[in-house]
Predict the 3D structure of the following.
Amino acid sequence: MENGSACIIMNKVNKYFGDKHVLKDVSLSVPSGCIYGLLGPSGCGKTTTVKIIAGISESTSGETYVLGEKMPQLSIMNEIGYMAQSDALYMMLSAADNLEFFATIYGMKRNEYKKRMLEVMELVNLADDLNKPVYTYSGGMKRRLSLAMAILHNPKVLILDEPTVGIDPLLRQDIWKELYSMSNNGVTILVTTHVMDEAVKCDRIAMMRDGTVIAQGTPSELQEKIGASSIEEAFIYYGGGNLED
C-alpha cells in the first residue's frame, strides 16, 4: 500500500493553547496510500494533530506538509476529506441538502454530485434515509452521514477523527472494507482511535500520550520489538501506563 513517498509530514510540531502545551515536538511521516492510525486516550492530542494536518488549526511552531504543500494551504483543502469527532450537520435540512451544500463548497458539478451522493449513502447504509431531515437521525446515523460527506468529493487525503464511535459492528466492518478499497486506490487515510482492534487494522500507527508520540511503526513491528502479545500490551509498555477510554 505504501509507495515510498510521504503524503503527510509533521516536523517537530508544537501547539499551545494559552499556557497549556498540547502538542510537544510531534513528528510524523505518513506514506501515500497508507491507512495510518493515531492511537491514544482522550485528551492526548490526537484531535489537535489532525486539525493541524487538515488546515483547520495552525501549529505554534514546527512545519506540516500535505501533498507537498505547507499547511494551512487553501488550495489543498479540496483534496482533503475531514470527518470531525463531533458531527457538523445542518439538523433542519435533509441529508441530501447537507450533501449538496458541501458538494457545492467542494466545487462539484451537479450531475457529478447527484450520482456520487447515492454512492456514498449506499456505502454508509443510509440510501433509504437520503431525504429525511437530519434531526430525525440517531447518533449512529449522524456519524455515518458525516463519513459520507467526508468522502463525497473523492479526496486524495481522508482524515477521520474517531469515525466509528456509535456505529454497529457489522457496519463498522463495511466501513473498514471501504477504507481498504480507497487505500488500494491511492487515497491516504489518517484515522484517530482509542480502540485497539481498530489500531491493528491500520498499516502503520503512531501511539500518542500527553501530546507526544511515544512509538511509531506497523502494529506487528511495535509488538515484536518488545515481545508483546497484543497492541494493548505494547501501548501500555511504550506509554508506561493504562489506556483509558
About this structure: The CA atoms of residues 84 and 103 lie 17 Å apart. The mean pLDDT is 90. Residues 86-154 form one domain. The two ends are 30 Å apart (CA to CA).
